[in-house]
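Pilot study result, target chain (186 residues):
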Amino acid sequence: MNRNSLFRLAGWSGYVSAAATIIGAVTLVIFFSVGDPFGIMNDISSVIIGLTGIIILFAMYQLHRSVAPVMSLVAFIVGALAMLTAAVVQSLLVINGTNFGMIVTVSFGLYGLSLIAYGYLTVVNETLPRRLGWWGIVAGIGYVLVITGFILGGENHPLTYIGGLASVIAYPTWAIWLGRVLLKSN
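Predicted structure:
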């Protein structure tokens, strides 16, 4: 796959990932209020976020590997393995009801670390608009706060709520903006 095709795919993946994040957040709230089928819809959204996230991370790696080869590779490997894990585990939940909730939470936290790393690289190297890099950092911090809240006190911990709110606002904003930038560059 050439670089233009990758960036085009990653651009569209940004849009899909943003939509899946918003749908996932809405269906999660409804699930906690009324139950299924909204839980399954949220789980499917997580699978989509996981798969599109891998594509986005690969494009970010390609964009940053010449300016920061080690950091970019580590961020890609950690984030891609985390998103692959989240997609597989959530697929198992959808298919046969096997629940590994903490694994998915940790996976999204690791994805958040990758977003922070790529946001930092964007800000420092100006490979993309700097404000876009800052939005990526905020989205990544949101995901990290979610995992921190879960570890410290579960789904009702204040950090879980703060991180969830930050990631649900910042991540779709970042992903849509990234999608626009990548699609315009082709």
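One observation from the pilot: The chain has a mean pLDDT of 91. A full batch analysis is planned for the follow-on phase.
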